[in-house]
Design goal:
Residues 58-157 form the TonB-dependent receptor plug domain. The protein is mainly beta. Helix content is 8%, strand content 53%.
């Protein structure tokens, strides 16, 4: 793949250089500028790129845009995947589907629809998986703010624009139908969309219009996951029986096969009226999305309970590489675990607004009242089984009696490891796997915002129209409410502590489960039968049963009836987890003033927007804290003020050559999960997270300089440099929290992951008094200053000067370099130093084709991941190393393609392919030791679109 990508990059750049050299004498006259306020309705790849270039050129800010190729179609089927083509933007994926973006390396962005808030589970706004491209007409990526814009974006603002009916030149009737094939699931799913729009001239009653869009998608996706834990172990390196060096030891191998069915319904409706005088207009609009589905996941697990140290374990294939990691070894005492799980996010979101504007001479008054909400329900069910040695069980029923098997491990830390189980037939032995754990839980997040906004614009004030274009002032008030809760039934260590009606220890094996609930599965994870756990098949609890959580609960209740774990009331089996409850109410008061200047300086046209925004934030946080086993309500408040001045200057230093400068102070409030004072534990209660209501926002001062050269129809090259000085980073730190109640429920088999309250090194054991042990807990405080800096290059060129059929060729390309550093000297999360996007397209005679390549270099994915928490540069647990727990995502590249053909003026057929080469995602620790590999579907879409 790397050789292919190098050839692709080289060929595209060569073509681009040739085009620049040969087009100087053949440039066409610039296209007529469109009105800045209108959304341009276009058809085809080239027209959409031309329209985006026009809007970029005419904007006062540093901005990039995507304009729909046709009504109801963006260049990609997913908004995030379309945004990854934009200069300075990189995306993350879930099951291979784009779901979040970072702008110039920063994920703390605002997502708006028609310049008002959208809501998701946190601050960033609606999840891009929940927004179909079919309901959008354009997307703006705004990198330099103005005072009029809503605060809260550290990287930038992404504004999703829908059609306004009075902007239509003619009625719209558009329908699309597609079928998406996912190769790992071998499933076909529908994608349907429709857009209807019309405006009416009602004479003296004015003009009225309606636009409505509707989209439906039903898809099934699969993701295969290999993961392990990386731990630091004092090891016998030379085989003399003495421990003589720390090594990184991979442990606890798992392979998950996770299949999700996702169903999404989304719609948008806009009503608009304007008087016959043309003095104003009013609108009522709303956007609704509903995403739901189910999940099926299962995994065989190999758990190592002791460090590799015996001569037998060192004998076969024993190797340690130059990074002091065990890369080849055999372990003789591995425990077998079997797991079936389901967890899926169901989200409903709504954004609605009523507003309007009216012109009183030179004064324009506008206002809007808006409401946004998001409701997320995430159910999870988890069943686990423990391998039991029947001989040891018969001899000593009071013992743990784990079956201990042998496994060989081999890795090059660059590709999927080999984890070879010596006797894989044991995985089919239903009489050797005992019921170990059952969890049934429901997580809920409710998030809503009511906002009022009022603006006044005085155009060409005081007769200074040749200098001051307008003066704008305005105010905004918001009330935000957020709450998060969990109900849970959790029964653990059933295989150790279950007692029957006589009080005797008992076990429930797989073969005691109801007929049909345990199935044999043909294990075929990862492509090419390249399975990290070398298994043919294994027995498991049928994951499809988890779709019916009530039925699963009934099965478990019947099995546990008459025991000490009996579930007495199915209706109240799930108990509210008060330590997981958090709520926040946030009021913000904002006011701004800005001046837009349109003048000349030394014969050079100058356009500038400058001013300031003031915002006051008042926060109240509520939660429950565990005090001596009782949950006591707790409340905290915080208030802070921010002045956010900004300036955007554009100078046309030569014909179609623009130089821009922008500077601004920006702020980003902490996410609500960071503000809750409640302690949150992982499933095994071996690691916790606790928020901090007193944490202050991200605050940064940013500077941007760009040079943009435009020519022909939509052609341009741009170079921009950016620098952000962040004065109040969130510094995540780990403390050893004194929480006896949490220690009491922690997984005894992972006792070594707890910590000593007195700060001593080493690992607690089952023999360690509980009073000496605490829970490793991550919390956040405001740290020192840091920075993000870099540059980006963008290039767009249609080769329409070439002869004949070659005139349909074109290319878009961009490169972003971003360098970051937090107060501890490590890079910021989600920032790749190098991001590349290259797209070659052809459009001629109704035929349109695109080949798109994306690349982003290694980046910090998680500051404090429990599976690599013990790692550090020095591999020394006694050292306070800020890189301990850092998980990195290795370089990612992807190749996508699309083709379409216009059968008639109104009918188009198309085909798309996403992730053509089936690239994997690899996660490593700070020592570059591989601990996780993810592999998702290739996706192929075939469709037809009609526009009347």
């Amino acid at each position: 793949m790397k050789r292919f990508s190098t050839l692709l990059v080289g060929s595209m750049l060569s073509a681009s250089v040739l085009a620049i050299a040969t087009s100087a004498a053949a440039q066409e006259a610039p296209a007529e500028a469109q009105e800045e306020e209108n959304i341009i309705i276009v058809e085809g790849i080239r027209e959409s790129l031309n329209a985006a270039a026009e809007l970029k050129r005419d904007d006062s800010r540093i901005v990039d845009l995507i304009v729909a190729e046709d009504i109801g179609k963006l260049p990609d089927n997913n908004v995030a995947e379309a945004l990854q083509r934009v200069t300075g933007v990189a995306i993350n994926r879930d099951f291979g589907v784009g779901d979040s973006v970072s702008i110039r390396g920063l994920p703390q962005n605002r997502v708006e629809i028609n310049s008002r808030s959208t809501l998701g589970d946190g601050r960033n706004g609606i999840n891009f998986q929940d927004v179909p491209s079919e309901i959008l007409a354009a997307v703006e990526v705004i990198k330099s703010p103005t005072p009029k814009m809503i605060e809260g974006a550290l990287g930038g603002t992404i504004n999703l624009r829908t059609l306004r009916p009075l902007e239509l030149k003619e009625p719209i009737i558009s329908f699309s139908a597609k079928a998406e094939y996912t190769d790992k699931t071998e499933n076909w799913g529908p994608i349907l969309g429709a857009t209807l729009g019309k405006s009416w001239d009602m004479g003296s009653a004015g003009s009225f219009g309606v636009v409505a869009s509707l989209s439906y998608q039903d898809r099934t996706l699969r993701q295969d996951e290999y993961r392990s834990s990386l731990e630091v172990t004092n090891f016998d390196l030379d085989g003399d029986g003495a421990l003589d060096g720390n090594v990184v030891e991979p442990r606890n191998f798992s392979t998950f096969i996770d299949t999700e069915r996702r169903e999404r319904l989304a719609g948008n409706v806009t009503l608009q009226w304007a008087p016959a005088s043309g003095d104003g207009m009013f609108y009522l609009e709303g956007t609704y999305t509903d995403r739901k589905g189910n999940d099926e996941s299962f995994s065989p697990n190999l758990i190592q309970n002791s460090a590799l140290s015996t001569p037998a374990e060192r004998a076969a294939g024993f190797r340690v590489d130059e990074t002091q990691q065990l890369v080849g070894t055999t372990d003789d005492d591995v425990t077998f675990i079997n797991r079936t799980e389901s967890v899926f996010r169901n989200t409903e979101s709504l954004s609605a607004a009523f507003g309007g504007e009216w012109q009183f001479g030179k004064v324009k008054v506008s206002g809007e009242v808006s409401y946004a909400e998001s409701k997320t329900f995430t159910p999870q069910t988890d069943l686990r089984f423990w391998g039991i040695d029947p001989v040891a069980e018969a001899a000593n029923p009071d013992g743990l009696n784990s079956f201990l098997g042998q496994v060989f491990y081999d890795t090059d830390n660059k590709s999927l490891p080999t984890v070879d189980v010596t006797d894989d037939s044991l995985w089919l032995s239903r009489d050797m796997f005992a019921f170990r754990r059952y969890e049934n839980r429901e997580d809920r997040i409710n998030n809503d915002e009511t906002a009022l906004r009022f603006d006044i614009s005085y155009e060409e004030p005081f007769g200074l129209g040749d200098f001051i274009k307008s003066i704008d002032i305005g105010a905004r008030y918001t009330n935000r409410n957020f709450d998060s809760s969990r109900d849970r039934l959790f029964i653990d260590n059933i295989h150790r502590n279950l007692r029957d009606g006589n009080g005797d220890l008992a076990l429930i094996f797989m073969d005691q489960f109801p007929a049909g609930t345990i199935q044999d599965f043909d294990f075929n994870a990862f492509r090419g039968n390249n399975t990290p756990l070398d298994l043919e098949n294994f027995a498991m609890f049928d994951p499809s049963i988890l779709r019916d959580r009530d039925a699963t609960l009934q099965i478990v209740s019947d099995l546990l009836a008459g025991t000490n774990f009996a579930i007495t009331d199915l209706n109240s089996a799930l108990v509210p987890q008060l330590d997981r409850f958090s709520a926040a109410e946030e009021d913000t008061y904002a006011a701004y003033a800005q001046v837009q200047i349109d003048t000349e300086l030394g014969g050079i046209p100058i356009d500038a927007v400058l001013g300031t925004r003031f915002v006051r934030t008042e926060l109240t946080s509520d939660a429950f804290n565990n005090v001596a086993g009782d949950f006591v309500p707790t409340q905290d408040t915080n208030t802070y003020n921010d002045w956010l001045p900004s300036i955007n200057i554009t100078a046309e230093v030569a014909n179609d050559l623009l130089v821009r400068f922008a500077a601004a102070k920006v702020m980003r409030r902490p996410d609500f999960t960071q503000l809750s004072p409640a302690l949150r534990l992982n499933q095994d209660a071996t690691f916790g997270q606790r928020g901090n209501p007193q944490i202050e926002p991200f605050r940064a001062t940013q500077y941007d300089v760009s040079i943009e050269k435009y020519w022909g129809n939509g052609n341009y090259v741009s170079l921009a440099a950016f620098y952000k000085s962040v004065s109040s980073f969130f510094d995540e730190t780990e403390i050893c929290l004194d929480s006896p109640a949490s220690v009491a429920i922690s997984n005894a088999n992972r006792r070594n992951e707890l910590c000593f309250l007195d700060g001593r090194g080493g690992e607690p054991t089952l023999a360690t008094p509980a009073s000496d042990i605490g829970i490793p807990t991550a919390t956040q405080v405001n740290g020192d200053s840091g920075s993000v800096k870099g540059f980006e290059v963008g290039y767009q060129h249609a080769f329409d000067f070439l002869p004949g059929v070659l005139s349909g060729l074109g290319v878009t390309a961009n490169y972003t370099f971003a360098d970051s550093e937090d107060p501890n000297g490590r890079p910021l999360e989600d920032i790749s130093k190098h991001t590349v996007n290259l797209t070659a397209y052809y459009e001629k005679g109704g035929l349109g084709m695109r080949l798109a390549y994306t690349y982003r270099s290694r980046f910090l994915d998680d500051i404090l991941n429990g599976r690599v928490r013990q790692l550090g540069v020095l591999l020394d647990e006694t050292v306070d190393d800020p890189t301990r727990g850092n998980s990195f995502r290795e370089p990612i590249e992807q190749l996508d393609a699309s083709i379409s053909y216009d059968l008639t003026d109104w009918l188009t057929v198309s085909a798309d392919a996403v992730n053509l080469t089936g690239e994997q995602i690899r996660d490593t620790g700070t020592s570059k030791s591989l601990w996780r590999v993810l592999e998702s579907d290739r996706r192929y879409t075939f469709g037809i679109r009609a526009k009347f």
